[in-house]
UniProtKB/TrEMBL annotation:
Protein name: Ig-like domain-containing protein
InterPro entries: Big_2, Invasin/intimin_cell_adhesion
SUPFAM superfamilies: Invasin/intimin cell-adhesion fragments (SSF49373)
Stretches assigned to the BIG2 domain: 20-88
One Pfam family cited in the UniProt record for this chain: Big_2
Length: 148
């Protein structure tokens, strides 16, 4: 008897295809509070949010992020309550807006003038290595004498 039922089911299958399963297409799995996103179901569907305090969804599948948290959006076929699809979304808080940047003091940082001893040591090193002193060296040495 089972053989005949199986044979009949096999013969009838092309004439009675299985109902397609509901699918939801989404662009993202994370939304920022205040953002919206359109969900698209593979067939006519009734949409429902698991937590309307976190996200709402309208009859067309437009999701609106309300508050931080996790939410499941379900699409159900109006013709078959067993034909459903689910998408999980995370809702995050909007980043804080930058209203002002800290500003350092208006006075530029100025390195202290080198001391006379430092200039004499550098002069000695340059001469010992066989380098000529740059043209501005005399000015730097004179400045160092005035500062110290």
């Amino acid at each position: 008897m089972n053989f005949f039922k199986s044979l009949l089911a096999w013969i009838a299958k092309p004439f009675y295809p299985e109902d397609p399963l509901m699918n939801i297409t989404t662009l993202a799995s994370v939304l920022i509070v205040g953002a919206t996103m359109q969900l698209v179901a593979s067939e006519a569907a009734v949409f429902e949010s698991s937590d309307t305090a976190v996200a709402t969804v309208d009859a067309t599948g437009l999701v609106t992020a309300v508050a931080p948290g996790s939410v499941a959006i379900t699409a159900t076929s109006p013709n078959d309550v067993n034909n459903t699809s689910l998408v999980n979304l995370s809702i995050t808080a909007a980043p804080e807006a930058v209203t002002a940047l800290p500003v350092a003091s208006a006075a530029p940082a100025v390195a202290p003038a080198p001391s006379r001893d430092v200039i004499q040591v550098l002069e000695g090193i340059l001469i010992a290595l066989g380098h000529e002193l740059p043209a501005c060296w005399a000015e730097a040495a004179a400045l160092a004498k005035k500062v110290v």
